[in-house]
């Protein structure tokens, strides 16, 4: 039976370290880091994420300032708000919650954020620094996954790592960070031939695809470490029966609550084959916010204000 890599516990450790960093700033007479969160429209999932981010900020002493704009806000107005936040000396980090409503260009918005305040690490300048292996603000989810792996003593040197997914947010930066730590990295995606065989080569398998239960137990090399980034909401009972044959608890939650969250990996099956697995929920999800607040503290310290 595999070990469960507890993301919640590690997120708490990361948040405690941010809290101490904020306290240290205060002791040096500096103000608390300021994080501006821009939420456009009323997407329910985004509202929950923003609420969770604000609550986490409050816990560690980071000042979070929410800016809510209507779904029909024109691009020029969003751009003007970003310019204003870029110029505000009390704002150390800016986060534009994605996805943006139709009609708004998320790349334009993200590229407009000052690289020094880009706490999501999505600006091409920060992505470029990562590519060169230089310090900068790095994407939160892969950074936090690396921190989890380091905490659990996973030695990446020479390891065969397979990253499923090639998004700018997770897959590509994750692959670069693994490469930086001397893993031998394969990036797989929707056009990859014989995905199960590629996955079976992995000593470390990172799934960031957004396809519930795509990775079956038979795709996993015995003893591999599995990091499941995917977050998928299942409501269909027939799909649940198929995906959760090895997870009676999940099936029960689906039956009683009408919906359940799961990852890209069939957790119950992975537990039988792998040496360590992150669960969903309670794995990578909580780590992402901890990574964001770590970046907010770093941005504030870099500003020296
Ligand atoms: P994207 O949709 O941007 O990228 C998905 C990637 O998966 C693409 O590269 C795509 O390939 C690949 N893909 C899709 N279908 C398949 C398939 N059948 N076989 C192989 N590869 C496939 O997603 P994100 O990277 O933004 O997110 C991925 C998942 O991670 C989502 O479930 C998201 O909710 C979750 N997530 C979780 C976070 C957390 O905090 N835990 C944070 C961020 C994301 P191609 O490029 O060829 O289209």
Describe this structure in words.
The strands form 3 sheets. A 6-stranded parallel beta sheet has the order 1-11-8-7-5-6, sandwiched between helices. The chain has a 3-stranded parallel beta sheet with strand order 3-2-4, sandwiched between helices. The protein has a two-stranded antiparallel ribbon with strand order 9-10. α6 (140-151) packs across α7. The model has no long low-confidence stretch (mean pLDDT 97). It is an alpha/beta fold. The chain folds into 2 domains: 30-113, Rossmann fold; 140-285, NAD(P)-binding Rossmann-like Domain (Rossmann fold), CATH 3.40.50.720. β2 (34-40), α2 (44-60) and β3 form a beta-alpha-beta unit. The chain is globular and about 55 Å long. It is built from 12 helices and 11 strands. The chain has helices at 7-27, 44-60, 75-87, 106-112, 124-131, 140-151, 171-180, 195-200, 237-243, 248-257, 267-273, 284-303; strands at 3-4, 34-40, 63-69, 93-96, 160-164, 184-188, 204-207, 225-228, 232-234, 260-262, 276-277. It binds NADPH dihydro-nicotinamide-adenine-dinucleotide phosphate (NDP).
The biggest beta sheet, please? Answer: 6 strands, parallel
The CATH superfamily of the largest domain is known as: NAD(P)-binding Rossmann-like Domain
CATH fold-level label of the largest domain: Rossmann fold
- Tally the helices: 12
- Strand elements, count: 11
Bound molecules: NADPH dihydro-nicotinamide-adenine-dinucleotide phosphate
The second-level CATH architecture of the largest domain is: 3-Layer(aba) Sandwich
Quaternary structure state of the chains depicted: single chain
Structural class by helix and strand composition: alpha/beta
Rg from Cα: 20 Å
Q: Poorly predicted ranges (pLDDT <50, ≥5 residues)?
A: none
Shape: globular
Spell out the helices and strands N to C.
Answer: EHEHEHEHHHEHEHEEEHHEHEH
CATH level 1 name of the largest domain: Alpha Beta
Helix content: 40-55%
Number of domains: 2
> How much beta, percentage-wise?
15-25%
What is the average of the pLDDT values? 97
Measure the end-to-end span: 49 Å
Question: Which strand order spans the largest sheet, edge to edge or round the barrel?
Answer: 1-11-8-7-5-6
